[in-house]
């Protein structure tokens, strides 16, 4: 498939999407959003793919939604076209997605990274929600996801001042899972993705779905949901294989798809 704003490749069981609008620091325009969803559709439909990595360049994961594209939109236009709604499809993907972030992840770029299941950051990564400086606020989930990830005090401070947060602080605050040297970013993210992709795909997907319930429900309902999904795992061949392999002291061969 031909893409204009992204590069898509598969590395074994891992799908890799590289945002590729270097002249605009990977600003997220509507073409890019459409292409990301098209690529994700294909990677999700491919039973050989067990994990997806999304990355940008060394300078920018993405410097935000494309300001030039939206600057002159009227209220009726932005309301009727609802051009950012496609991001809900990105966030709702069922296969695991890792954001490998180097450089700027600002505004919609930070929000895109937070839509992924976790973020691996290079030591030069800079996160921020600077929309307030443009006379708007985060509009792709940032007010909600950032608050859940780093807590109200820091989310307020970041969204109200627009200040940037470096990689070390982002790790300390719970925004990113791991910080690695810039030169190792893609290798590390792909290695983690390969580990996930080597496991049982349905069990991985059920685990993702169950963890995500934590954002949507009470503790007791979340635990009830977990218990039901846990029980259902015993209907898979991979559960039988995983436990038999442990008992027989051999590596498991997961096959469910
Ligand atoms: C469109 C962008 C862009 C953006 C950068 N560019 N960010 N174009 N939308 N978000 C373009 C610049 O206009 C410039 O194009 C080129 O990329 C290089 O950027 P420079 O500014 O020259 O680079 P530099 O001096 O290194 O500064 C990097 C930067 C700065 C600090 C990241 O570009 C910046 O502040 N960008 C905007 C960050 C931002 O406000 N993001 C939030 C967007 S709003 P030319 O043609 O001049 O070379 C948002 C809302 C989401 O995301 C919610 C939607 C629902």
- How many helices? The count is 12
Strand order of the largest sheet: 1-2-3-5-7-10
Global morphology = globular
Relative strand content: 15-25%
Q: What are the low-pLDDT stretches, counting only 5+ consecutive residues below 50?
A: none
Major pleated sheet: 6 strands, mixed
Structural class determined from secondary elements: alpha/beta
Strand/helix succession: EEHEEHHHEEHEEHHEHEHHHH
- For the termini, the CA-CA separation is 24 Å
State the oligomer. Answer: single chain
CA radius of gyration: 19 Å
Q: How much helicity do the residues have?
A: 40-55%
In total, the number of strands is 10
Quick summary:
With 257 residues, the chain is an alpha/beta fold. The chain contains twelve helices and ten strands.
Question: Explain this structure to me?
Answer:
With 257 residues, the chain is an alpha/beta fold. The chain is 46% helix and 16% strand. It is built from twelve helices and ten strands. It has a six-stranded mixed β-sheet, with helices on both faces. It has a four-stranded mixed β-sheet with strand order 4-6-8-9. Helix 6 packs across helix 7. The two termini are 24 Å apart. The model has no long low-confidence stretch (mean pLDDT 98). It binds hexanoyl-coenzyme A. Hexanoyl-coenzyme A binds at residues 24-25, 27, 63-68, 84, 104, 106-108, 130-131, 134, 138-140. Hexanoyl-coenzyme A is lined by residues 24-25, 27, 63-68, 84, 104, 106-108, 130-131, 134, 138-140. Belongs to the enoyl-CoA hydratase/isomerase family.
